[in-house]
Amino acid sequence: AYLSPILLLFPVSLSLCNLVHNVALHQKASQSSENSQLGVAGHAVDGKRDASFQRGSCTHTEEESDPWWRVDLENEYTITAVMVTNRDEHENMLDGAEIWIGNSIETNNIKNRCAVISHIPKGRTIYLYCSPAKGRYVTVLLRGSKKILSLCEVEVFVSNYGEATQSSTLRGAAASKAIDGRRNSYYSDWFCSHTAEGETDPWWRLDLRQTFVIVSIKVTNRGDCCAERLDGAEIRVGNSLQNNGYDNPRCATISHIRAGKTSTYQCDGGSMEGRFVNVVIPGKSKTLTLCEVEVYTVPAGKSLPSCL
Length: 308
What we know:
7-stranded antiparallel sheet, 0% helix, elongated, 2 domains, Jelly Rolls, 6-stranded antiparallel sheet, mainly beta
């Protein structure tokens, strides 16, 4: 499954070619109880999707009422997706588990439910989309008596590195739909952003919150109709909001993206620095629809990874 809305290449201990940014990795985890040293809470954020409890890769609580597991992300993020890996045995143990996001460590005071796990086949990993919710803590809660909570990996993906806005919004097709981490290209399924129809110079903008070197940008076009609407759209990168970001230098021009397809654009000269990434269609009576925008970056002042 395709995962991350904004793919950031940070010079950390992970390979620079690993484009998925999992903010739960190696963070502090806790749980309601521990069955043994083999089942400690930290095993679910060790970066291994090994589904074997016996090899020390999974968590395990005692049998109890409403067992829970929680990871502290240390900062508040806007969370868009969670991935959960189930054990290679006892596959029904996670059925009905709830994933909650919030800033409280009290299980009765968590504000946003991301998803409910209906079922994960044994040893498998599933992707759970969250309606973007802010929080520092991600909690997995299994309600009921005589329950055991066992997790082999929990990965948390965020759009905290960017906030999307656009010139106008048509029927709930918010700008954030273009950074929700999925390349589903059907506007009718509510996966795409959409401005009002017939605007002059409609625009969409991503605020990365700080200046980055923009290595490349991937754009996914609408697949159910109207692929030609993106023809001639300009990608602009810079630090200015003047003229809604249109005064920033032009990174690239989209000549044409076939319906439902994704195209990659590298800025003129190889890379550009900026906090804001704009997509704008110059002209009158224009409509801007984007089904996904992915921005590959490295921090300003850092060299580009060779794997690109």
